[in-house]
Amino acid sequence: MIHERLLFALGGLTSLALAVRGAPLPALAVLGATAVYALVCRFAPTRLRLASAYVYTLWFYEAVAWITPALGTPTWDAALLRADRALFGESPAIAIQTWHTPLLTDVMSLCYLSYHAYVHGGLLWALRRREDAERLYVPLFTAFALGLGGYLLVPATGPAIAYPEAFAAPLAGGWATALNHAVISRGTSLYDVFPSLHVLITLVMLDHDRRHARRRFRVMLPACLGLFVSTLYLRYHYAVDVLAGGGFFALSAALCARRAVADRDAAGAVSR
Q1: What percent of the chain has pLDDT over 90?
Q2: Is cis: bond before 139, omega within 30 of 0?
């Protein structure tokens, strides 16, 4: 499956880069985790094989927090901020701080949190049937593999962390803001900015639901539109991260479509 090949490549190339950089223990950790994932993919039944991509991706996402320092890659915040200013005059995350109210911050926080319910809930629900799982897991984890590669190639911490002096005051809100802050603080991989996975993965979910789960698509679309705005409002992302999320979505969709055509052609050749 295409997502497995990309995840294997991500793990293998990362372990090689770590070894070249003189970080043998991190290299072995990544190689070991990737080897375990490969063994599960080789011998497990289909649904467990698909679920293992979920586990491996979660592990790799958290591992970015120590892989990036081990690689010694400099952060790209300055370049991303310059790109925003070249495109928009000022980074939208900075420019829209005049919008801030405690109520709106709570609304944006709820929209941002909806990502977790949408993605994790959708993945668990799809595992009920093998066909449903394949339809969702293959494109979703293809996108995750590409996005995690972006994290390693373009590590950045985001406007709020990199440029706190650009904001007149901290974000103020109520319980939803506090909950979102707690979730982000405990679940971040620190260098998780480019591309915005909240945008990339949500677009994959919406595209899947538009074709296969229309009711869920209609329910989630308003929250997802708010989520896209919240990435900037909450100061987590530069606008170029959000645009990159759309670009990575187009790339992942094209890769999956090409693979599907190749698989159909191969099946047709065998049947003949």
Answers
A1: 84
A2: no
